[in-house]
Amino acid sequence: MDRTGARSGISSHPVRLAATAVSGVFLLVGILGFIPGVTTEYDGMTFAGHESTAMLLGVFHVSILHNIVHLLFGIVGFALARSAGGARAFLVGGGVIYLVLWIYGLVIDMDSVANFVPLNTADNWLHFFLGIGMIALGVLLWRSGSSVRAGSRSGRAHGGQHGA
Asked: 73: domain range?
């Protein structure tokens, strides 16, 4: 492990573990969006747009583009989770993107051509909670990991282990 904790085990910083878990969920959702049965009305899936009738778990509108975005978010998240700073950037930046998407979903008409993702009410509220959750993980776990690292550095500076 290097002094910054970069590229060492996932457990070296809690924000890296969280980003890895969130990335795994995005990847899983992207894959599930292409599985008939898990995605209802699969035959009605379009590449993009509100015309897609496919629904992930029968609740969330999906399209081929929507599923690809989930897959890409997962891949980017795994790449950024290799460092604590990258993991934080993925969680906070991704959370901001999802909050912008939530606002976008609130202001557009669900049946307009502007609804290219496609979005429905369930998607909108999922995006809101996902955005808040990702930002919270990025901020809170970054602080948590920073205090853990500071404590471990001071322990080494004072001659090693505490306690025994």
From this structure: 11-157
